[in-house]
Write a structure and sequence with these properties.
Elements: E1 7-8, H1 10-17, H2 27-41, H3 59-68, E2 72-73, H4 80-86, E3 89-104, E4 109-124, E5 130-136, H5 145-151, E6 157-164, E7 178-190, E8 196-198, H6 215-221
Helix pairs in contact: 3-5
Length: 235
């Protein structure tokens, strides 16, 4: 997820996304570790709630899990329009499904989360019907991709700014959908009403982003006419 000077800790994400394997010479240590860790987990604050595979997330928790899945160092763009200028694809649409898969990078397969988006408007990138956001997902993440999906239900509004992925296309990606990696400030997920959260944008933010917390404000910042869903202007 690194575009135009935005660098991502992909090495760390790749390491976390691979499964832990214990060599035979360390089998005793592995057994002791499995016995010892649960004992540690039982100590301390008993109010901690563990997320289980059957847990359902609300929208805020799902956005938080997505935010925590990867760390990015980035130079903030001056404005939404400046961001649109440095990416290849900018779209508005709704989530269709969230699912897991793997990307083959040669020595290891990297665990991924995929988010299929039905495109309602293309703001840059030509005529697109669907895009798929790809992001690394660690095998030991406290939140599973199934749990993530429970909080990002079909119909959730999103705006994405990014570029076609440089990784090999995963077999799981929906046929006909353009697989993309988004810019650090380029993943806006709807919360309530017209409002959204810019998932990976941290505290670094240029004044040109002030007040851009709704899709209506985002459209205005991009000088797009009408309301979301009224057309598909392409820049």
């Amino acid at each position: 997820m690194a575009l135009s000077g935005q660098s991502t800790d992909l090495d760390e994400a790749i390491v976390k996304s691979t499964k832990i394997r214990f060599p035979w010479t360390s089998s005793l240590a592995a057994v002791l570790l499995m016995l010892f860790v649960p004992l540690l987990a039982g100590c301390g604050d008993n109010s901690r709630v563990e997320v289980t595979s059957s847990s359902a997330l609300d929208r805020g928790a799902a956005i938080g899990a997505l935010r925590d899945s990867i760390h990015s160092d980035y130079d903030p763009t001056e404005s939404p329009e400046a961001q649109r200028q440095v990416v290849d694809v900018a779209v508005f649409g709704t989530i269709e499904k969230v699912y897991s898969g793997e990307v083959d990078i040669g020595s290891e397969d990297v665990g991924m989360a995929f988010i299929d988006v039905k495109v309602a408007e293309t703001w840059k990138g030509g005529s697109l019907d669907a895009v798929t956001l790809m992001t690394p997902w660690a095998a030991d993440s406290p939140t599973s991709v199934d749990e993530l999906a429970s909080g990002l239900a079909p119909g959730t509004k999103v705006a994405l700014f990014g570029s076609p992925t440089s990784w090999s296309r995963a077999a799981e990606v929906t046929p006909g959908s353009l697989a993309i990696e988004v810019a650090t400030e380029g993943c806006m997920v709807g919360t309530t009403g017209d409002s959204f959260e810019n998932v990976w944008a941290g505290e670094l933010r240029s004044p040109g982003w002030d007040g851009v917390s709704t899709f209506t404000a985002l459209r205005a910042a991009l000088d797009l006419p009408g309301e979301s869903g009224s057309g598909s202007p392409d820049a």
